[in-house]
Input
Amino acid sequence: ADVFMVDVPWNGFTQSKKVGDLAEVYQFNMSPHNYYSHLSSLISASLCAVLPNVRIMESEVEDVPWKEELITALPHIVEGEMITPTGPGWGADIVEEVARAHPWAQGKQGI
Output
């Protein structure tokens, strides 16, 4: 493998950081596998900010039409680089009314 990829929302931030640290010991790059949501992008950006061996982070740009309504602060990208959130926690809160209005339909999209 040339790049270690982790799913931060599935593995958790701490475990993902441990994988990144281990990858660095063996001189491998790390990249968050990130196609879930804007919140996932904010969490992944925070992980990228604390690991020296990150060169790239994927991000899903096409998704459900209400994706941008789901959190209170969107990722901020300047010249192809995501600015690390500076607010408390991950830098945004979930808008619970939007989440309740769009329950997960189990079985759709191959899940």
